[in-house]
């Protein structure tokens, strides 16, 4: 059984969004989930030119990966998010504000590193999210 503490200490500034500064983990198993894109089970793009639809599909895929290993959202200890367009940052923050309270109903959100990159594996993808979980 993993012991996961997610918090933002007083020594660091308040997070700028729905994330925390630190995750401390004692676990039997760490799981590293490859960056998820907005694809369905057949590998088809979901939400071409639609950032919101791509966010929904990416996090649906993460949830599927968690379920496949017997995990839940509370097992997530870190995200790394890659966005192609800096103008999508407010859209991503809004998505997290609306959806993360459902995923993380205890109000404790894992750390997230957000990077803006030139492109993903195919130009039609707008974001990718890598996940680390502890079981």
Distance between the termini: 6 Å
Helix proportion of residues, in percent? 10-25%
Radius of gyration: 15 Å
User: What would CATH call the architecture?
Assistant: 2-Layer Sandwich
Class of secondary structure makeup: alpha+beta
Tally of domains: 1
Taking the sheet with the most strands, its summary is: 4 strands, mixed
Looking at the structure, what is the overall shape?
A: globular
Which keywords apply here?
135 residues, alpha+beta, 60s Ribosomal Protein L30, Chain: A, 4-stranded mixed sheet, two-stranded antiparallel sheet, 2 helices
Provide an overview of this structure.
With 135 residues, this protein is α+β, with helices and mostly antiparallel strands. The protein has a single domain, classed as 2-Layer Sandwich (60s Ribosomal Protein L30, Chain: A). It has 2 helices and 6 strands. A 4-stranded mixed sheet has the order 3-6-4-5. A two-stranded antiparallel sheet has the order 1-2. The protein starts with a strand and ends with a strand. The relative contact order is 0.27. The mean pLDDT is 96.
